[in-house]
Amino acid sequence: MIIINTIYRCPCCSEAELILKVYNIDYKKNIIKQIDKNKYKKEYHMETFPQIFYKNRNNKLMKIGGLSELKQLISICTFLRKYKYSHELINYIKRFTSDC
User: What residues contact residue 84 under an 8 Å CB cut-off, 6+ apart?
Assistant: First the structure.
C-alpha cells in the first residue's frame, strides 16, 4: 500500500493523489498540519510535500519520494509492462546500474 503525507491545499499533493486514483492504486492519506511540517521533513529527510512511501510486506515504509519520483515510477512501470520485461532481466541489469 502507498502512504502519502500531504498538506492542505498543496497542488503537488493533490496531483499525486489524482495520479494514484487514475491508476487505481490503493493509498492512505495523512494530512499534515502546518505546525508539524518541519517535524515530518526532518523525520523522513524530505524537504517537500507530498511525501510518498510504499509499505512493504513487513510493514516497513520504503521511500518513493515526492510527486516527480511518483511520476517517474509510474512511467517506468508502464514501460516495463508495455514491453513485458521479466524480473530476471530487470534484476540482471540492476547489478550494473547500482551506482547510477
Answer: none
Mean pLDDT of the chain: 94
For the full predicted model, state whether its pTM sits above 0.90: no
| pLDDT of residue 100 exceeding 60 | no
C-alpha cell at 5: 503525507
CB 7 within 8 A of CB 31: yes
Average pLDDT of the residues in 48-70: 96
Render 5-42 in DSSP notation, one character per residue: EEETT-HHHHHHHHHHHHTT--EEEEEEPGGGHHHHHH
Domains and CATH numbers, the chain: 2-97 (3.40.30.10)
How crowded is residue 5: how many other Cβ atoms within 10 Å of its Cβ?
22
- The crossing angle, in degrees rounded to 10, of helices 11-22 and 67-82 is 20
Measured distance CA(52)–CA(62) in Å, rounded: 9
